[in-house]
Amino acid sequence: MSYQLELRHFNYFLAVAKELHFRKAAEKLFISQPGLSRQIKQMEEILDTPLFVRDKKKVKLTPAGMYLKEEVEFILNHLELIQKQSRTIGEGHLGEVRIGFLGSAMQEVIPKFLLQLKESYSGIKTSLEELSNRAQVDALLKDKLDIGFVRLARVPKGIEIMPVKEDSFSVVLPENHALSAENFKKMGQLKEESFILFAQEYSPLYYDTVVSICEDSGFSPKVSHKSVHAQTIFKLVENNLGVSIVPTSLQYGFKMKIKFIELKQIPQRAVLSVIWKSDNRNPVLKNCMDLILG
Questions:
Q1: Residue 222 forms beta bridges with which residues?
Q2: In this structure, are 175 and 144 located in the same domain?
Q3: Average pLDDT of the chain?
Q4: Which end of the chain has the least Cβ crowding within 10 Å, N or C?
């Protein structure tokens, strides 16, 4: 009996590839485990190659399976986009652009862009999702995002990057801290403090830059807490659990008992960049990039 690959095969395969467990994948798909196993076996017969290595203890992907997982994720994400864009265009809109961002981009860059978009292309819909640098890059590669706002020095092949805003850094202190803009002279005055920073996994470039700011003053920061949200960092500072260093623009929009001292004399800068995939086929992406890059 001859078979051909169908969409269900890809959905079944991806479920197993993510779970690496047939029973768990079957439960998520609401089908029987034997039925799922038959579908995967049929898929392997059609492709004439094994996709999984199975034994009593674990399931893992073969090299062919690992390749297929990446491709299937992209295909299914793109199919979902096609359906969504078709529906959006059918409703009379030009299309939708999916935007990923770091929290600091929401202070100025994204609100300005959204306002320009509304004024110039009111028929373009937007969706926003706050994600780490790494998650944005991954989502772009898998066709889950169209545009990302990140703090990265380099990106993988196939992704374009352009700086859109350069910012200074500021020290964040509790409101009652002895240091102020008047008596703050150098970072060395904070060498005995505990530091609360954005997690290195969330923004490696930011983390390394902050460490370099401290090291230029002759000490390594004692990092006591990490977070992916500015509000959490500021709340910890407010409660005298440490100090922080953040892009200066993050000081706006929060009402807490903290103070900011801008580090005007240091060479380090917080650079926010826009990234997009060079072969992205979203018909409204060009309109958006023209506005962002001006």
A1: 194
A2: no
A3: 92
A4: N
